[in-house]
Amino acid sequence: MKKVTIIGVGNLGKSILSGLAASDIIDASDITAVDKSKYNLKEVEEKLNISISQDIITSIKGVKWIILCVQPRQLDLVLEEIKDKLTSDQILISTVTGTSIAEINEVVPDNKVVRVMPNTGASKKLSMTCIAANEDVKEELKFVEEMFDTIGRTLIIEERLMQAATVLGASGIAFFLRFLRAMIQGGIQMGFHPHEAQIIAVQTAIGAATLVAKNGTHPEREIDKVTTPQGCTIEGLNEMEHQGLSSSVIKGVMASYEKINTIK
Ligand SMILES: NC(=O)c1ccc[n+]([C@@H]2O[C@H](COP(=O)([O-])OP(=O)(O)OC[C@H]3O[C@@H](n4cnc5c(N)ncnc54)[C@H](OP(=O)(O)O)[C@@H]3O)[C@@H](O)[C@H]2O)c1
């Protein structure tokens, strides 16, 4: 039984759907997308050839995997709506930030729950998805891992690290993109047209990340390879550090982490 229903087809839901629908482990015809917005649903139906519905109750019937992809403040309503309709063999996969497995199980005590924290790289099969579950969820965890492997890379973590995973992996997309934007702005100031600066900065970012990913090296090792003594790279790097680059990134990450711990 591999049927999947995803509740909430917003930014993340669309990204997960486009990865899953193109994967080998689930047929697009076994996927149903549920959302309040007809516009969101039409978009995924046309692009991905999956079933769509605005009715949660009918769309979870006979489905093994239910992916919850709504905002934290919307989760309670969704759980209240489905709790009496669920059968105990159905597995809930929650992408929702800041709501623990125990909190979900307070409302739906008979269902196994897996928490996942993907990112919007999912739409290009480049998500980083952290996954956490309780000890009793072993077999199911394997399939959830397989499911999210189809949209990028996965890592099983302890649930206590889920907030940190959200900051580093999900908000991390925004953090890296802000750095990318700054590089593009620097490129424009040196004389490139914006689209040229973007091509150069994006490809360089892909190259830099791929070097670390494929070589398994620490970033500083790859930095050393392009840093000639007394050259222009070290001049730029040191100026960035004098201006507080590493410190402001770490402080930003920690501010985000402090904030996430207050969100419910
Ligand atoms: N965006 C990310 O990169 C990211 C990464 C990791 C985790 N997350 C988590 O993933 C969850 C979804 O985030 P998102 O950015 O995709 O949010 P989003 O863009 O707001 O999408 C949520 C969607 O769910 C719909 N919805 C809400 N209540 C519903 C209901 N009762 N029945 C059917 N549809 C309903 C919303 O419709 P309306 O707009 O009409 O309410 C909206 O289209 C959040 O909990 C977030 O913390 C997000």
Automatic annotation (TrEMBL):
Pathway: Amino-acid biosynthesis; L-proline biosynthesis; L-proline from L-glutamate 5-semialdehyde: step 1/1
Listed SUPFAM superfamilies: 6-phosphogluconate dehydrogenase C-terminal domain-like, NAD(P)-binding Rossmann-fold domains
Location(s) in or outside the cell: Cytoplasm
Domain Pyrroline-5-carboxylate reductase catalytic N-terminal, chain residue ranges per copy: 3-97
Segments forming domain Pyrroline-5-carboxylate reductase dimerisation: 159-260
Gene3D superfamilies, per database record: NAD(P)-binding Rossmann-like Domain, ProC C-terminal domain-like
GO molecular function: pyrroline-5-carboxylate reductase activity
InterPro entries named in the record: 6-PGluconate_DH-like_C_sf, NAD(P)-bd_dom_sf, P5C_Rdtase_cat_N, P5CR_dimer, Pyrroline-COOH_reductase
EC number: 1.5.1.2
Enzyme class: oxidoreductase
Entry keyword Transcription: no
Residues holding NADP(+): 7-12
Keyword line: Amino-acid biosynthesis, Cytoplasm, Membrane, NADP, Oxidoreductase, Proline biosynthesis, Transmembrane, Transmembrane helix
Key word Transcription present: no
Main location: cytoplasm
Catalytic reaction(s) noted: L-proline + NADP(+) = (S)-1-pyrroline-5-carboxylate + NADPH + 2 H(+); L-proline + NAD(+) = (S)-1-pyrroline-5-carboxylate + NADH + 2 H(+)
GO process terms (BP): L-proline biosynthetic process
GO cellular component: cytoplasm
Listed transmembrane segments: 161-180
Function: Catalyzes the reduction of 1-pyrroline-5-carboxylate (PCA) to L-proline.
Family: Belongs to the pyrroline-5-carboxylate reductase family.
HAMAP family associated with the record: P5C_reductase (MF_01925)
The protein's name: Pyrroline-5-carboxylate reductase
